[in-house]
Amino acid sequence: MGLVKSLLYFSVHPNQLRAILQWKLWHDPVHARDPSKEPQSLKDCFKYLEMTSRSFSSVIQELNPELLVPVALFYLILRGLDTIEDDMTIPLGKKEPLLRAFDSIIEKDGWTFNENGPNEKDGELLVHFDCVITEFKKCKPAYQSIIKDITKKMGNGMADYANNAEHNINGVNTIKDYELYCHYVAGLVGDGLTRLFVEAKLANPALLSKPELSESMGQFLQKTNIIRDIREDFDDKRRFWPKEIWSKHVDKFDDLFDPQNRQIALNCSSEMVLNSLRHADECLFYMAGIKDQSVFNFVAIPQAMAIATLELVFQNPAIFEKNVKITKGDACQLMMESSQNLRTVCDIFKRYARRINKKNSPKDPNFLKISIACGKIEQFIESIFPSQNPEAIALQQAGETSVAQKKSAAEEAEAKKDVFYLMLAVFGTLIVVSGLMIGAAWLAGARFDVALNEIRQGNFAPKDKGIPQVQNTAPAFDHAEL
User: Catalytic residues, which ones?
Assistant: First the structure.
């Protein structure tokens, strides 16, 4: 049934199938990891990377060889730290010292941790954390220093939040607290990665003098995830939407999930989206400072996913009922587009900003602010890549077509052709599968002649003849004394 369902879906969404096939068949990574040259401990690290990373594993493994291992270990170390912080079965008296000392722990040979609760999905990483430590100590001292520094800052920040009883009970209160939380769990990651990129000479050193750019990179991703995961977090009794925002719309946080308050809840989510959108232009500015293609892909793909997710959750009541996410076809399309250059990433941001603006409702209290935020994104993109240039204007006045327009038209024609062939393939597969199922039924003894005869008579469903009365023919026994 899963195959049939997929075939039916792709038969009406052929562009989705086309994007998936293009990514799977024609994606050519800038760099390819070679496991045959790795020691067993490093192979184990990548095994746990694939186990714990839902979205970053593939892009990490396509990084420039200079940064492949440091970034992978950076991710695993922070994932281990987060696994301890996130486990509510670990007593605070034990958790806090671990969080604050984790930057020292990653230098202790053979250290492992097996006291996570049974439901902690990433606990396996800590059980075998010794392989991470082994490989970390092989990294260049400069990379070790950066990773240790970020680990220390993040560990202390997590410990502060773990100690904050108000946060643990009532969640985030103010927008300032919300920003600080996102800084600890994502902004610091952006800072550390930027320092690694610059140290490897794969990014412009000027990025270090503009820490607000790397901060926005992390904040944009984290805030988008927090908006998307509202239902999941609510079910887990976690509250990351700041009270300063939701209290403008409802009296109690739980009221956001009452179907009777759906429009009010959407207005609240719009304000959350607005808060996230203000980071978009700085994310684009940051990406302009990346020199290496693999690093550019690494930072651009998640940002493209984020702006697409932001458009998906905007004015979408489903976020209060279930966890929503972009389709696999859209994800593959975004990965193909965003792994090219800054212009294509800007086109993605412009496209989704326009979609958000189109969905924006005048009834929304933040209608004007959201329109301005979307306009600001387009204005920034226009300042980098003007939509009108002297050459294009001259060609337009002469009635000629520019090279870019010709290329775009050719790509569009090719896309239509591909979609046509994909639809033929999908329908052909449906016919073959249907034929096989009918043939199997016939071999099993199905009477198609009887079925066709009933259909001709207008009987499209079995008639309800009722339950026949069964006559009791059993002899009556006299239960007399034996």
Answer: 181, 228, 238, 298
